[in-house]
Every structure is written in C-alpha cells, then in structure tokens.
Amino acid sequence: WYQRRVHGKQWYQRRVHGKQWYQRRVHGGDGRITLAYLHASFQREAEAFVEESQRTPGIFGRKLVVRNVVYEDSAVGHLDIPLTGGDVAQPPASKGARLAGSGPVPVEIDGSLLEGGGQILRMAGGYSALFCVPIHISKIRAGRKTPGLAAQHLESLKLTRDVCAGKLTKDFVGSTDVTLVPSKLAPGRFSADPGTAGAITLMVQATLLPLAFAGGPCRCDLRGGTDVGFSPPLDFLMRVLRPTVATMGLDFTVECVQRGFYPKGGGHVRMAVSPSDGIRPIDLSEQGEVSRVEAILYSTRPLGAEGDLAVSQARPILARLEPGAGYEVHVEQRQVSAPTHVAKAWIDVVVVTTTGALFHGGSEPQDLPGFGKGGKGGKGGGRAFSSAAELLSQAARSAVDALKEELSTGAAVGERLMDQLVLPATLAQGKSRLLGAELSMHTQTALHIAGLMVPGVRIEQKARGKLILVEIDGVGHVAGQVAPAARGEEVPRTKRGDEEESDAVVHLDRGALSGAPMEMRRDFEEDMRRLSQNTGAQVSTDSGRDRLVLAGDKAARGQAMSELEQILLFYQIAWRR
Predict the structure, then answer these.
(1) Could you tell me the end-to-end alpha-carbon distance of the chain, in angstroms, rounded to an integer?
(2) How would you write 439-475 as a 3-class SS string?
(3) Can you say whether the dihedral through the CA atoms of 210, 215, 221, 227 is positive or negative?
C-alpha cells in the first residue's frame, strides 16, 4: 500500500499485488509526504504512482532513483551493492572482516560542530560505550589550527575503547575521523598515557560513567598533566566533581602519586571506581550563601617560613570574597610530589554554599622565584615576584576576583562543572535541575551530543532572568541495560480463565533504535502506532533497550508479529529467534 496526505486530508492507502510496502516519512510543513524510501521490487509501481500524482491538480511529485551503493573499508575494499536486484559482487575478505550490514550502522557525528574539539569525542565515546552503539566521528577539530586528533584526544578514545572492549579505527594522531565499535562493558584494570601533558582530568571525564556501569570495581592508572591550562585541574576533580557526583550515586577515589605540568607532563594518578546500581538526579537550582572557603597553597619545593607567610597573607584576601558574610576561611600550604626538574607554586580554592553548591577557582602553576629559564621564574601578570609568598598572594587575589565574578551571576553551577554534569544527569532516574549563567560552548556541545545519542532523554532550557535553568529528565540507565537477549521471550502478565495473557518482547539488533537518527526513530514509532491501530495489538517501542513489546490477546499479537516482520525487513533491522 502507498500512503499520502493531500492538503490535510486523511492518508491515502492502497496495496500493491497483495504485498505490503512500508515507507519512512519526512513530513513537510503542510502535512504532505516529502520523501519516501521504497524497496526496489516496487520500483515500477512507485514510478506509476508518482506519474499519477503529477496529473492530480495541486500535487507535485518528483523522484530520485539510486541504482547502487558503493561500500569501502580497509578490510573489505571496494564493494558494489545493487539496489535493483541481482547478486552483490564481493571481493575476497580477510578472516573476521566486517561486511556492510553485519551490524548496526554507526551514529554519524560531525566533529566540527559547536565546541568542535575534545568535548565531542569524550561525550560521544562515553555514550557509545554505555549504550553499546557504534559511532563514526568525522571532521575532527576541523576548525582548529592543527586539525585532527591530538595525543590526549587519542589516548582518551583508546581508554574508552579498552573499557568497552571495542574496536577503534583510524586511531592515530592527526586523524580527522574515527569509528568506535564498542562491545560489552566489563570491570578490570586500565591504563592511559598520552606521552604528553594531556589532561588526566579529561581522560576521567571520558570514561568515568562507563567505568561506573562496568558491573564491578575498576581501577585506572593514568599519566599526563594534572594541572595544565585549558582543562580542569586535579583539585577540581577531587574537591568539586567527586563530591557533587557522589550525591548522584557515583563513587570513585583518586590518589595523586605525582603532579604533572605543561609541557612535559609527568603526572601520575590512580583512580578506583565503584560499580553503580543507578544514578540519582541532582538539584542545583539555587546558589545559596557562601558558608565556607577552603584554599590550598601548593608548591613542589619546600617553602619553609615563606609558606607560613603565604598562608597568613592569603587568609584576609580570601575573606574579602563576600565582606561581612561571616563564612569560614580555611587555608593550608602543601608540598606535593612532581618531576625533579619542576619548581612551581599555585593556589586552588573551593567555595561551599548553604545549598551544597561548590565553586572552584585557582591559578595556573608558576615557576618559583629563582627557577625557570635562566633562574628567572616567579613571573606572572606582567611582573616578577621576589618571593614565593608574594607569588601566592597575587594568585589568591586573582582567584578571588574570578570567583567574585562567577558568584555575582547567581548561578548554582560553575561553568566547568555544568558541562561535566550533563552526562550523569541524562542517565539518572528522574529530573536534574542545573542553574547556570550563559552556557559555555562545552556545555552546549554536551547537550547536543546527549540529545543525539540518548533516546528518551528530555532536555529543557528555561530563562530565569539572566540565568539559564537546564532541566534534564534522565532515562534511568542501569548496568547491562543494552545487553542482547533472545528474541520472542514471553513475559507473563495476567490470567483470564484458562487463557494466559502475555507480552511478546522482540529484541532487535544492538543499536537498531538506540543508535538511530532521531527522524528515523520518529518514523518507526509512527509505524508502530499505525500497526497497533490496524491489528488491535499494542506495540510499544523501548528505544533505549532496542526492543519492542507486543501486548494484547494471542490472535492480535500474532497478526501484529506477521506485519512487524515486514516492517523490520524494510528498515533492515535484524532480530533474533
């Protein structure tokens, strides 16, 4: 049967030689079909249908005939796939080569959109591993000065690959497109080392959730940079992100063996992640009042009396964050391990509010006076410092100025924390509320990838004065949710007399719905609705778990199953007996 709607009238349907033909639809603004995909066996009937439509007043039809598709990859080589019948000419394939159509089609992601950098890779890779959906990312960092994968991006993807026991293709520095085909998550020990000062905290962002849903305890040995520019420092991870996601049910610990800095890295962190049985939503919709300020003055060399002086000078500076507020101020000085050639100092500050909101501020590590090139360290802000105490006092002033500006917006979530909470919030069972200032490009990118890869998630952005309240209604993800199972299992429901009613659960190929484009999923759900109307069975889709549930009496389910087989054949979705 063919379907069409003309100027808002009902769908027009008809059968062709007793066979059934189903279409994927994209609806235009006036309700007409603007695009239909047809199986090749109906080519002649379809052409006649278009010609007939063109003769009908007010109807304009066009056609595009695609006679073959060319498929290429490194394993199979060149493969011509005719769409008008006939055999497919297949070149000799190596053992284990993956032919076209042997698995779910990867989700296509444009790596140049929005932030156009590592955030796309980290978010997409994390969702790919969690939902076991393959992804293909193209145009990686296309708008950057040096396009393609940098060492730190590559290492994050490799770590994600290892966590999900997947396959990663075109995985080399400079590559502008990669494909990740994940397998089942499993607990274990993992390691990553980009060989540079690549940020360890961003490796954690890429893999924390997959590790938490691996089904058991996981340990990671990570090397690179702990405190480097253009990325969250290690203290943000340990003192802000960790306690925040702990309220959502995520438990992990971090042990810093050695700090690492630009340009050589040398940092070493051990992380242990406990298994999660589900994520709770979080409400950070009110900033509250400052209740406590905690600052740590770090150095990689002993400071002696200079350290005590720096603490005494930093305390009144931090007390000026909100004059007269009466909050606690805690300051301490710590020496930390670092590569032998490094002599640096910096400050990390965490602000705690009455609603439990956490804000991070600080300074980038600077060479101590007397160190650096030619012993000319201690420079910052266009001036040279004569002592470590002076350097740290100025670092405290800069940190307080930045924190004042952030708190003055009224936001309850800082810029760096906001983009890192998107992923866990989309997996939570319930609605998370995050109040931020103007959304950063990293946050906008995280929301874009979430909307693309998380079927069923609902994301709203509501203006609250100059602030934005992001509401994320998560999907309630649990460990092993997308694991494949046998098709056609019967789920007992109720008994009516001697007849037992049940739901027929049809398990689809992994990623068939959860990894499909949004338009395809909408079309598929519409077809299921019409199938329910035509057969009397209730056919519902569970996209996140790649399955269908058929409810109703035995006869209705049998008829629906017969029709469903044809629909799945049209969509080229595999299902198992």
Answers:
(1) 28
(2) CCHHHHHHHHHHHHHCCCCEEEEEEECCEEEEEEECC
(3) positive
* Amino acid found at 112: S
Cα–Cα distance for residue pair 554/552, rounded to 1 Å: 7
Using CA of residue 114, residue 359, residue 208, residue 227, what is the dihedral sign?
Answer: positive
Give the model's pLDDT for residue 240: 96
Distance CA 433, CA 424 (A): 12
Query: What Cα–Cα distance (Å) separates residue 284 from each residue in 42, 421, 466, 559?
Result: 55, 11, 16, 49
Q: ω into residue 263 within 30 of 0, thus cis? A: yes
Which residue in the list 153, 268, 360, 442 is annotated as catalytic? 442
How many whole angstroms separate alpha carbon 343 and alpha carbon 391? 13
Residues ≥6 apart with Cβ < 8 Å to 333: 296, 297, 298, 299, 303, 307, 308, 310, 311
Asked if residue 111 lies in contact with residue 121, where contact means CB atoms within 8 angstroms, the answer is yes
Distances in Å between the Cα of 196 and the Cα atoms of 139, 204, 367 are: 23, 16, 19
Q: Quick one: tokens of 109?
A: 């992601």
* Partners of 272 in beta bridges: 219, 253
Cα gap 152→163, rounded to integer Å: 17
CB 350 within 8 A of CB 360: yes
Say what the pLDDT of residue 493 is: 38
Token couple for 115: 């932030």
Contact status, residue 348 vs residue 331, Cβ threshold 8 Å: no
Indicate the SS3 state at residue 205: helix
Q: Give the whole-angstrom CA distance, residue 76 versus residue 91.
A: 7
Q: Residues 358, 235, 423, CA angle at the centre, nearest 5°? A: 65
What is the predicted pLDDT for the residue at 122? 95
Q: Where are the beta strands (DSSP E) in 91-227?
A: 107-110, 135-138, 167-169, 178-181, 189-192, 218-224
| Counts for the chain of helices (H) and strands (E), in that order | 12, 29
| CA quadruple 196, 200, 203, 205: dihedral sign | negative
CB atoms within 10 A of CB 42: 15
Per-10-residue mean pLDDT for the chain, 577 residues long?
A: 40 40 40 54 68 59 59 55 48 32 72 90 95 93 90 94 94 93 93 94 95 95 94 96 95 96 95 94 96 96 94 94 85 95 95 96 92 51 78 96 95 95 95 94 93 90 93 89 36 36 73 77 84 86 80 86 86 74
* Known catalytic residue at 27: no
The DSSP bridge partners found for residue 292 are: 328, 352
Q: Is residue 407 a contact partner of residue 436, using CB atoms and an 8 Å limit?
A: no
Using CB atoms within 10 A of its CB, is residue 257 exposed (0-12), middle (13-18) or buried (19+)?
A: middle
* Count of C-beta atoms within a 10 Å radius of residue 449: 28
The Cβ of residue 116 has, within 10 Å, a number of other Cβ atoms equal to: 19
pLDDT of residue 424: 96
222 closest CA partner among 164, 277, 177, 267: 267
